[in-house]
Amino acid sequence: PLRNINQTPQYQTLAGDGDLLLMPTREVLNPRLVGALYLPGAGYQSLRASGIRALLTKAERITSKGAEQKKQNLVLEALPHFSYALLDPATQVKEAALDALLKLLNNYQKRPVEDFRKIIQSLVKILNETSGTDVPVRHKAARLLGQFPDLADQAAVEAMKQYLTQRLEEWKQLLTHFQLTDQKRHEDVNQR
Q1: Which one of 21, 44, 46, 124 is CB 3.0 to 4.6 Å from 9, fit for a cystine?
Q2: In the structure, what pLDDT confidence band is assigned to residue 1 with cuts at 50, 70 and 90?
Q3: Contacts of 88 (CB under 8 A, 6+ apart)
Q4: What is the crossing angle of helices 135-146 and 91-107, to 10°?
Q5: Cα 4 to Cα 53: distance, rounded to the nearest angstrom
Q6: How far is the C-alpha of 160 from the C-alpha of 155, rounded, in Å?
């Protein structure tokens, strides 16, 4: 573990006139990967998005003894950083965070749902954004929020209701535009 650390303790005496080195008791996130998520400015948005993907990859690549517990710990530590990334103004960063969270949710079903409470408010904020350019981001946020019915507060329920109403109106406009009536649609579509 010490070979991966750039800072080497330089103890001059047994009493410890040198640096203090703290060793974690479990696997932790690489600070270099986490640091990339907090670089401000539009010029760093691709770096922030790749930092999110790197954090996810780091958790997936652990194969040592007790790997499953280490993965769970890294996922738990990554959640606040992903929540912060969901508030990023760059669509690319939000989408990378949503993709990572959806993948985490699929891969780590054993993780208690309560751990994901940190991201609910960020998802609600994304759903309340009504700009047309963020439709894929809003769709992924709605899918993710739908996975946590136990964590939904009143704001989350209202945001989801508004989102679904908007999507239903878009669907009705498409049907009208293409002049599809109930008789012209396949019966399976009418039953859904």
Answers
A1: 21
A2: very low
A3: 45, 48, 94, 97
A4: 30
A5: 21
A6: 9
